[in-house]
Specification:
Elements (H helix, E strand, L loop, with lengths): L1 H24 L8 H24 L13 H5 L3 H10 L7 H21 L17 H29 L6 H50 L42 H7 L13 H11 L21 H20 L13
Helix pairs in contact: 1-2, 2-4, 4-5, 5-7, 6-7
Length: 345
């Protein structure tokens, strides 16, 4: 009686998990959203409970065949495969390695159960070929894809028949369960290869992150010696540091910058070949005025020359005479006449 009740609870739990999986597949939420991840955790917890109950009941044995199990019991074989699918939907970067390891473990359990029950043949460990023909690999993938599409179509047709009013629904349901298991076996083979590749990359990234963290820990300054914070002080009057650059043991007491000829040349790249101004004209005049090089003030400015009145004929005649005398002087004394050298025209 207890086993019967347990079977019923396992079946109900697995049915709920199947419904939740369908909801996840058609969910409009983003896979990285908190609400979606909560649903993923809920489905994973439900499937884990089913798997625990199956193990406690020792439901599947290698001494039996699928004919020894009811249709509802056969469906429970898919629990580990479904759990592997759900675990891959977890997007936590820190837990990615452990999540992929658990998914791979569940996929392998599903394959082992199917092999023990004779649903698929024992393939053993497949050795990876060193040299794989790309053409053969492509043709193999195409063939597997066609097989998977055909199996999906058959499964869909059986599911539609279950929704009808046929007399042999029990036989159709059992055939649907077996086809569903075979389809999942086909999908799990591809999922295992993808998980193994992703797991390898995730482990490499985890090792790189661990190495970076270790390097950062090594860069933490020792408590025995560190730069004195007081050595950063600068004397405001002299502009010099108050502490020497190195102490008696040769340890630096304040930050410094190493410069050399190469760095100076490097800094001058893409600069013009002439000296650029370092201040504006106004700044220069202000600086010169502060130095006292600009004289301001002084005597009175000369008064402007008074204009001659047009009605003052005497003044006009005197101005004309003055201009004529100046013209005569320039004629008698051409430019350069007083030079003693030989640069005359």
């Amino acid at each position: 009686m207890d086993d019967t009740n347990a079977d019923v609870s396992v079946g109900l739990g697995f049915s709920r998990a199947q419904q939740q999986l369908k909801s996840l597949a058609s969910s409009p939420l983003a896979s990285t959203s908190d609400e979606y991840q909560k649903q993923v955790q809920s489905v994973a917890k439900q499937l884990q409970q089913c798997i625990t109950q199956i193990q406690q009941l020792s439901l599947f044995s290698s001494n039996e065949t699928p004919d020894d199990y009811s249709t509802s019991e056969l469906k429970l074989i898919l629990a580990t495969a479904y759990l592997g699918d759900v675990l891959q939907k977890t997007t936590s970067p820190d837990l990615r390695v452990s999540v992929l390891e658990q998914a791979l473990k569940n996929y392998q359990k599903f394959q082992t159960t199917c092999q023990d029950l004779g649903i698929i043949k024992h393939t053993g460990q497949v050795q990876k070929a060193k040299h794989v023909d790309a053409g053969q690999t492509r043709m193999h993938k195409i063939e597997r894809f066609k097989q998977q599409r055909a199996m999906e179509q058959e499964t869909k047709e059986l599911e539609e028949r279950l929704m009808g009013d046929e007399d042999d629904l029990e036989e159709v349901e059992r055939e649907f369960a077996l086809k569903l298991i075979l389809l999942k076996v086909h999908q799990v083979q591809d999922d295992i290869h993808m998980v193994e590749r992703e797991l390898e990359m995730a482990r490499q990234m985890a090792n790189m992150k661990r190495s970076r963290d270790e390097q950062q820990d090594d860069r933490v300054p020792s408590s025995e010696w560190r730069l004195d914070p007081h050595s950063y002080n600068v004397d405001l009057q002299t502009g010099q540091h108050t502490r020497p650059l190195f102490n008696e043991r040769g340890q630096p007491t304040r930050p410094f910058v190493l410069t050399n000829n190469r760095q100076m040349i490097k800094d001058q790249v893409f600069r013009p070949g002439w000296a650029l101004p370092t201040m504006s004209v106004d700044e220069y005049l202000q600086q010169e005025q502060e130095r006292g090089n600009i004289i301001s003030g002084g005597g009175k400015e000369p008064e402007p020359k008074a204009e001659i009145d047009d009605n003052d004929y005497d003044a006009l005649d005197a101005e004309v005479v003055k201009q004529r005398e100046w013209d005569d002087f320039k004629d008698n004394n051409p430019r350069g006449a007083g030079n003693m050298g030989g640069n005359r025209g």
